[in-house]
Each structure stands twice: as C-alpha cells, then as structure tokens.
Fold:
Amino acid sequence: MDTARLLPLVVAVPLLGAAVLVATGRRLPRLVSDIVGCAFAAVTAATALLVLFRAGRPGPGAYPVEWVSGWRRVGIVLVGDPLGAGLAALVSLLVVAVLVYSWRYFEEPPRRHTGSFPALILVFQAGMCGFALTGDLFNAFVFFELMGVVAYALTGFRVEEPKPLQGALAFGVVNSLGGYATLLGITLLYARTGELGFAQIGRRLDTEGPDGLVLAAFVLVTTGLLVKAAAVPFHFWLPDAHAVAPTPVCMLLSGVMVELGVYGVARVYWTVFSGPGGLSHPDFTRALLVLGVLTALLGAAMCWQQRHLKRLLAFSTVAHTGLFLIGVAVLTPEGISGTALYVLGHAGVKAALFACVGVLLDRYATVDEHELFGRARELPEAGALFAVGGLALSGLPPFGSGLGKAVAEEAAGHTAAWLPALYVLVSAVTGGAVLRAGLRIFAGAGRRPRDGEEDEPETTGEEEPETGGRLRRIPVPLLAVPAALLAASLAIGVIPAVGSAVGRAGALFTDTGGYRRTVLDGHAAAAPAHPPPHWQLTGILLGLLSAALAVTLATLAVRRPARTGTAALLAPVRRLQSGHIGDYVAWLVAGTALLTVLTVPGVR
Amino acid sequence: MTVLPYLVAGWIFLIGVYGLVTSRDLIHAVGCLAVTQSSTYVLLLAVGYRDGGTAPVFADAPTDSRVVDPVVQALALTDIVVGATVTALLLALVVQLRKRHGTVDPDALSELKG
Structure:
C-alpha cells in the first residue's frame, strides 16, 4: 500500500475507536471497553510507526504527502515528514502506555459511561496526531482546538471534586483565547496570500518583502502555539491543570501535548516565515531565545519550591519546554534534532515520573512531599523507578534525555557560549527537586520538613485517590508501565539508529525549499547530508556534571530542610501564580505585547 | 472596502479580553470568551468581502457574477462549531463548579496557588 494512503488512518482510526466506544460503551463491561480502546490505540501506533519507518529510510526520497480526496487547492493535506510522523508515533505509543496504565483506574466509572475515558483519550490521540501531520494552517487550528477541548474535558474528568474543575477552567479559557489569537493570525495570512497551506503561504509570502501585517500575523499565530507550549508568561494554566488532572492524563499533557506547541512554533516558522518575505532569522532567534531562557529559569526556580509532587513535575515540564524553545530558537538542524531527541527522552521520563506519583496518590491519598515523608519506604520498586527518573531528568548519560540535552546544548553553544551552562543548571535543579522529593518520600532521609508560614502562597497535596479505594497492593501495570517508559528512554540514548534517524529528520525539517517542493510539486526531497547526532565527550561530561549537581542539591536540601533565603526571594514570583483566570488572561496579553516588542525590529 | 471592519474586529477581541480580565462571574467570563471569538468571525468575513459581490451560490446567479470569497465562509462555519463546543464544555464545568464549590466568583476560588 502507498505510504501516503496510510496517513489519514493515523487520524481516522482513533476517531473511529472513540465512536465505537461511545456507541457501545454503555453495554460493554469495563474490561472489554478497555481492551477495545487499547486495540485502536495500538493499531494507530503501528500505522504511525510504519509511516515513520518508510519515511525515515535513509537515502534520497520524498516523504509521503496525502491530499485527502484529491482537493489540492484548499483541502486537507497530511505530510508524513520524519519529524511529524515521529511525533505521531510518539503520541500513539504514549497513549497505549497510558491506556495500559489506567487499566485499574477509575474503578467505578460513572454508570452507563464505561467507555468514556478511553474514548476521550482516543479523541485526544487523534487531535495530537492530526496536529503533528497536518500541512495546512487552518487544519492545524482545528486539530489544535480538538486536542484542547478534549484535554479540558480530561483535566476536569473527576467532576465530583472542585479542584479539577478550577484547573480545567483556567486551562480552557487561556488555551481557547490563545487559539483564537492564532485564528486571527491565520486570517491575516489568508488575506495577504489567499492560501491556507504552510507551503503555499510561505511561497506566496516570499514574493514580497515583510511588512507590519506579516509581523502581526506571526505574533498572533505564535501566541496561541506558545500558550500550548506553556512558555513564560503564557504558562500559568499548566501547573494548575497538571496538578489536578488524573495521573494518566498528566502523562499525556506533560509528555507530548505541551511539546506539540513547541513543534507548532518550529513548523510554522520554518515552512511559512523563514523566507525573505517572513521574519528574519536573527529576529526570530532573539524573540524565542528571550522567551526560552525566561521559561527555563522560572520553571526551574518554581519547580524547586513545590511540595505538591504533580505541581513539581509540571513546573519541571515548564523548565524543559524553555530548553526546547532555545533548541528551536538557534535555527540549525542540530538544534532541531537535539531538541527532538530531548523531547523523545523527556516524554518517557516525565510520563514514568507521573506514573510513580500516581502510585503514591492511590495508596496514600496525598501527593504532598511533606506529608509523605518516609511513608513510602515499603515501596522500594516505585522508589527505584522514581530515583532513576530523577537522574534521567537531570540528563544522566546514556538516557535519551541526556543525549538530547547534550546535542541541543552543543547546538545552542554555537549561538551563545553561556547557553550550555543554562542547560546544565536547569536540568540539575529540576532533576534535583525530583531526587529531593524521592529521598524524603521513599527513604525518609534527613529531617522531617517543617510547614511554611500560613500567609505564603502554597498548594498542598491532599487529593482523592483515583481508584475506587486506597490501593493495598500495587497492581502490576502501575509499575510495569513506568519501567517500560524509562527503558524506552534509555533505548533512545543507546541505540545509534535512533540518533541517525532523528538527525535526518532534523535536516529535512529545516529544509524549507525541500518541504515546499515535496508538498506542492511532488518532487523528491533529498535529505541534506548531515552528521547524525551522537554522544561526544563534552556532552557526556556535562551530562555527568548536571546529574552530580542534581544529587548534591537534593542531598543538601534533605540535610537542611530549614527554609532559606531563596524561598523568601521567590515568594513574590510564587504569588503571581494566583489561580485567578483574569490574571492569567492579563499575562497572556502582556506576553503578546512582549513578543511584538521582541520581533518589531524585523519590519524593514 | 474601508478599514472599519478590521478595527471593529480588533475592538471586539480587546473588549472581550478586558471582560475576561475583570470578570467577577465565571459565566460572564465564558461569555467574554465567546465575544473574543466573534472577532474572528468579523475578521474572516471582512477578508472575504468583495465590493458589489453577491452570495457565492450559483443556483440563481450567472456563473461569471462577482461573488464574495466562499472559503472564509466555510472557515467561519468551522470556527462556529469549534466555538460552540468550547463554550458548552466550559459552561458545563462552571455549572459543576457551582454545585461542588457553591460559587462562580473567580476571586473565591483559591485552592491552587504558588
């Protein structure tokens, strides 16, 4: 079968699965609906992997492009370039892992709605795969909103509790507003070019010089994507949503959905705005670098301050998103492939860490670092997984996250010599925060931490368990899934074929002319020759350094749990995270203004 | 074709955002979000407008008659569907929040901080 013909299946199969589950879910027993959900997700994953395998064959050759039902002017175009297909495969594999993990979750789902959770997850998968594969700006907006709406519903899935509802509302309002900003930008681009496809708009824009309208379109389109990517100051919704969403949903939100925002920024810039009619490379680099550095630093600082484990992991996602944005900002194939490897490794590690937190939540009905002090000594397996996850998060070789960090920081070092230090610092602090929590919870190390003063802004971690009752014995999937995810993350760093495939994907991704020729003219895009990303001595040493720093930070924090000056220093920053929707919207507007200021010199 | 529709679209977006920022009631906030979205309808239709153009339906008009751009109308239709979904879901969340929390005032929701 023609590879291009497989592309629509990656989006259609999960949608079909969701429809089947919604239609028959109320008659099926729980076990059957879970198996049906897993089967549809697995078929999608197999299809995406097949596309990826065929599109990723080394040597010259076009990647598949499918114009659904043959409408070439305005229609639905799906492009299976290796990076997009790779993300679709990552999404699908993670969805399978999540569905297996949630085998025993929600022990008593609402009556007559047995299939609703797997059905929602399948729609979420379809939205994310579609967003990764689409070659059209308006379709990208539709898939963006589809995954958004499903994600709000999944975040507020436990409608019996007030906290998830509050988190889902903030998530929904801020993300939808960002989506509408994107649509305004898309409309401006259509007004200028009369086209909606990435390749068509880009080609038409390049016939004229840039002006204020193109700049406004860039700022508006990017705003929505940066909201999804949770870049500072668009990030406020993320910790609130992640802290309250069911654990399996957190695995997907942190593991892939946020990263898809970064992917969107990179895809739109390279295919639409990177030519002479768009935004100049130095302007884009400056704007995204400033946002990325702010995001990385703020995320790391806030991550260190948290005691609510899911919030801690959520802020670590913010910090890593900042690093991904920096990798995209440097505008080199190495930066893209390094970031892609980092995203792959990070997805496995972060999902595994969330899975471990889910185990704690269901056994102790809390995810508070202070309350759990020493209580999880009876769970050595979960503790070991959590510790390995913390080390991998800090970039320890030979994990995939370590390889991605090494390649990305080297690429970033060519742009500014101090950027590798930022990579080391941020991954050390986030990894250190995870290790600190792990040492306290699973080993009971150090002194019992004191609670802070009353007036400080703080979210503590008392939550309702997500299973029917508290778990006595930990079911196998709850530990097997994080173990498999960590193993996958390790494999990404160890198997050289992954590195060379990602290197080729990065080279094809940044070849704007090749993309436009492949999509519009059907010419074969030859992959530009490129040394594949691999382990280098500097990268290994810097990875070991950040892992060592993470361990040191964690040990110091456990030894001296007394509140230090940093907490007082960061209190004003923490107060900004107010949980108030109006504040978050105001920050979104401020962020759009900041983005405009950063890109304005681009107008000639 | 004047610049007025574009200014109107920008104004609607900003007034909706202003409403969201200062909202004291979540139902009102969801309404404001719908207002910001209606700016996209105005902008889309303004972009597709042609002077002297008629509706792009050729059943009762000659095939060479001047019509407005049908593409943006299809986009606006899709946009409306998206908007209806978002509004319905968010309103359902607000209703549920009122049941569990007893309030729809965003200032009174203070469980997630720092």
Notes: Chain A has one domain: 3-602. Chain A touches chain B through 55 residues (CB under 8 Å).
